[in-house]
């Protein structure tokens, strides 16, 4: 009996030792590709762990915070704090440092607008990172424009991607995708952390996507009654995996998109059609978005099928046939319904709804991004899958 | 005697009390115009003081750091630190927070690239801020482009401002200004903190400047031997007022601009002329820059007078006649030499050199920005003064 217990104890101890060993980070750290020029930290290793470092000689406690999960850091004799995270999913994550209770960006990382503020982000190298890499191919332009919106009674900033050939032939006109960011993000998201321009440059150079214009506007407009103000929690939506973006499938409860709908339909689309060489008709106009932007797409595009022919919803729910007022009209006008989720989100309902749409004769596609959550790697991949399906009719 | 001493003591005490009273900040604090959307801090008052705030409940010491000068902050019962600076010059300043020795950006402020990293900046409202305000006028576009540089053997990002009418008439062509940032800044500086696009939109809408293209490239290229690597102090140049940008008048000692010269002449200008509707000749091409960018302009433009006809040097020295190899050729080709400084910099030599050039029959202009130092308000104003003088011959 005693021998058995001792044996069990020894085995258990062995397991613990083995586990402790596997918890040792693999020592192949490299500066993250997203770092500021010349910065050696933060670093990532082949397991996807993040190693942060900051000099804070008088601090009592410093932590690395990745999407709300905190990892301890320790101080060396020179006052330098260093600490590692557990392995993270491939792709982009928002993060920060907590210094004696102060939540601050990491001065060495890159900066993006997410979770309602400019903060740090880090890119964990991904097995499929080639599709969003900056390559030696013809490049389009991302243009910062300002248009006056009567709906918002203000100037609004917007980014417009024009494909590589846009300026070559002044008589050529292009289809347009209106592409929206998520809750508490802004108009910079798709071209910064979303890499939309590089994704399109690569697809176009490989002949996999038609050249088209992408319009990336700010989808938050507070003049609409009922719209959740910046910083308020999205009513009724469950945040997924530590992000504060509303999870898909919540049906957009708590959001009222009529302000943005007015801005898009009455101010932005007319401005784009007047100032860019668009093919200004329904077959050559698509709308898509991620998370809240996907909810906006679901709310706006099916209500304006004379304007949009193709629909993309990334981590933002899906369209059930019983939500469609006139199924025959929808079949006639909607040439594509694309729904996507990360595999770590609950996309089952989206997948089911896509199957039902397909059965009803509507061109529908479901895509699941492997091993990603409610984060940008899911949405980079979603754009990469969605773009080749667009404007096939031209 | 005793009475006299007492009287003197009383007077001195009175003076100290008066001084303490005038050191009380005027209580008309407002959120800085540069803050992130919805952020109440940092604030500024009518004296130009900055009031920063951050929650750091466990911190022992928090300071506000404006261009290297530190101001104490104090903690309230809720763990919120708050502190004021002394009055600052009008315009833009780089700043940060120091939390128990850690130098970090302020999570509430805006972010720009300056002093070698992404950091916080704040705008103190200026009496002349109207000229760089976003107004309801026709807007140009700021286009993010990528071009492949054989000189750098890499893709380089560049921003190109196209004037409001650029896309209206596909047959119209435009002059070009190549406009460079300072040391440890990058290609984002002129359109972010420099407000170059809004300055031009306003000038053009008022009929004060000809519409022209502005090319804003990254002027740092490390392949050239002798170029100061990022982070290294600029050899022989004296930093002005706490910034680490080299002061003008140092003659560019320690810098070697041949790498950027090759990139500009052999890669960038041909790319711009091939991809934008430029008037691709010497009379319609200008070069200007601030601080190190001014030194680059002095080094490159006079050596390529078959390429550039107009020269702007902002806080980056000036051109002495004895530096000009062939004065007759220079008089023939250089249609404008513009030199500027902030009044808190030493621009006396620049002013003197401009007077000598004028006397030699060269169209030269000296501008001094009132009550500003080696900072962006000087350079915003310099562009505003310089742009109306450009491309007068068309």
Descriptive overview:
The structure is a homodimer of 394-residue chains. Chain A is of the alpha+beta class. Chain A is 23% helix and 26% strand. Chain A contains 7 helices and 19 strands. In chain A, the strands form 3 sheets. An 8-stranded mixed beta sheet of chain A has the order 12-13-15-14-16-17-18-19, sandwiched between helices. At the A-B interface, strand 8, strand 9, strand 11 and strand 12 of A face strand 8, strand 9, strand 11 and strand 12 of B.
Quick description:
Two copies of one chain form a homodimer. With 394 residues, chain A is of the alpha+beta class.
Structure keywords:
homodimer, 6-stranded antiparallel beta sheet, 23% helix, alpha+beta, 26% strand, globular
């Amino acid at each position: 009996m005693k021998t058995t217990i001792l044996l069990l104890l020894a085995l258990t101890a062995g397991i613990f030792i083995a586990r402790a060993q596997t918890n040792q980070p693999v020592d192949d750290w490299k500066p993250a590709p997203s770092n500021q020029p010349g910065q050696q930290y933060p670093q990532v290793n082949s397991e996807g762990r993040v190693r942060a470092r900051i000099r804070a000689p008088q601090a009592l406690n410093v932590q690395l915070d990745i999407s709300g999960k905190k990892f301890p850091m320790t101080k060396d004799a020179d006052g330098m704090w260093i600490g590692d995270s557990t392995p993270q999913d491939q792709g982009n994550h928002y993060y920060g440092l907590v210094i004696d209770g102060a939540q601050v960006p990491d001065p060495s990382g890159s900066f993006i607008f997410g979770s309602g503020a400019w903060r740090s982000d880090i890119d964990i190298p991904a097995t499929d990172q080639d599709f969003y890499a900056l390559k030696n191919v013809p490049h389009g332009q991302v243009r910062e424009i300002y248009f006056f919106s009567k709906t918002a009674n203000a100037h609004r900033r917007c980014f417009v991607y024009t494909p590589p050939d846009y300026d070559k032939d002044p008589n050529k006109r292009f289809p347009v995708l209106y592409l929206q960011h998520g809750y508490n993000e802004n108009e910079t998201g798709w071209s910064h952390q979303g890499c939309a321009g590089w994704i399109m440059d690569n697809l176009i150079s490989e002949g996999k996507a038609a050249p088209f214009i992408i319009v990336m506007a700010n989808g938050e407009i507070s003049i609409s009654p009922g719209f959740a103000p910046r910083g308020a929690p999205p009513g009724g939506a469950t945040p997924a995996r530590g992000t504060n973006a509303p999870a898909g499938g919540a049906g957009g409860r708590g959001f009222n998109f009529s302000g943005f709908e007015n801005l898009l339909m009455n101010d932005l689309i007319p401005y784009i059609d007047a100032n860019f060489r668009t093919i200004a008709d329904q077959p050559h106009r698509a709308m898509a978005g991620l998370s809240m932007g996907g909810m906006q797409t679901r709310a706006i595009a099916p209500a304006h099928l004379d304007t949009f022919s193709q629909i993309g919803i990334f981590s933002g729910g899906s369209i059930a046939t019983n939500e469609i007022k006139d199924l025959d009209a929808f079949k006639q006008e909607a040439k594509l319904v694309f729904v996507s989720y990360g595999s770590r989100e609950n996309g089952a309902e989206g997948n089911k709804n896509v199957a039902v749409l397909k059965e009803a004769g509507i061109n529908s596609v479901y895509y699941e991004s492997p091993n990603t959550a409610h984060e940008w790697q899911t949405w980079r991949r979603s754009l990469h899958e969605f773009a080749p399906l667009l404007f096939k009719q031209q």
